[in-house]
Structures are given as structure tokens and as C-alpha cells.
Amino acid sequence: MGVNYFTNKQVKELQGNKYVKHVSNKAITYTEECKQQLYEYSLQGLKAKESFIKLGFNPLILGKRRMQSLVERTEIQAKRLDGFKDTRKVNSGRPQILNMSTEELLKYKNHQILLLTQENIALKKNDLIERQALQHYPKKQKDKNSK
Fold it and tell me: b/e string for 65-81 if b means 16 or more Cβ within 10 A?
């Protein structure tokens, strides 16, 4: 499964489209207006290729899979409270411990303790199962190691 990179000529062509927020050789970021239009076109029953042509894109540059996946993502984004806004900068990464109140920090740390406790229990069970298997089938393990 290869990655479909854009050529420099294709990047320049895509940059000229008003519905493109940012484009590089590897990826393209669309405007909120573009996503809104695509969603409206999909509600009207238009196919992805037809929708992108109406928005001024060359479907040969984008490719069938890239167009279809954006239409699917816009349908999902339409159901979100944030809508078509790009929330990657706001919702990405680890929680900011520095900005947490004492109550939030306590809740976060308790959650971490719970996760680590569950992990320890799972590891202990796994170890017990392995030891029981070795006790029950010791000759098979030794025969496999001698080959």
C-alpha cells in the first residue's frame, strides 16, 4: 500500500483552489467551507467525484480514495458539536497536568493508579498461566528447545 504524493506541479494547482487551507507533497488540508459544501452535496446525493469537480478540484490529482475518505469524514464531522472545525490543536496530546486544579489532578492520578493496578493483575495472571503450562507440559518444552 503506497502513499500517493503530490508532484510540485500538482501542489501549485491545489494551492490555487480557494477550498484548500494548506497543501504539501504528502497531505492536503481543506477549509471548513469546503467540508460544509461536500456534506451538502452528499446530502443531495452527489458522488464524491462530482462534488469535487463542482468545488474546482481535479479528481485525477486527488484520487478516488482521498476524495471518498474526505466525504466520509465530513459526514462524521457534521454530527460533532464542533462541526467541521479542525480540533487537532485543541484536543491532541497528553492532558495538561500543569493547568489542572487539585481536584482534577487527584482524579487523573487515581485513574492512573487504577490502570496500573489492572495492568499488574493481568501480568500476574499471564505469569501464572505460563508457569502452569510449564509444569503441565515440561517435556514438550524441553524437546522444542533441544531442536
Answer: ebbeebbeebeebbeee
DSSP 72-139: HHHHHHTTSSSTT---HHHH-SS--STT--HHHHHHHHHHHHHHHHHHHHHHHHHHHHHHHHHHHSHH
Contact 19, 56 (CB under 8 A): yes
Grid coordinates 481535479 are at which residue? 58
Q: Measure the CA–CA gap between 147 and 138, rounded to whole angstroms.
A: 15
Query: Residues 133, 106: one domain?
Result: yes
What pTM did the predictor assign?
Answer: 0.59
Domain count, the chain: 2
Does residue 41 share a domain with residue 21?
yes
pLDDT digits (tens, 9 = 90+) for 44-68: 999 999 999 999 999 999 999 999 9
Rounded Cα–Cα distance for residues 105 and 123 (Å)? 27
Q: If 0-12 CB within 10 Å is exposed, 13-18 middle and 19+ buried, where does residue 30 land?
A: buried
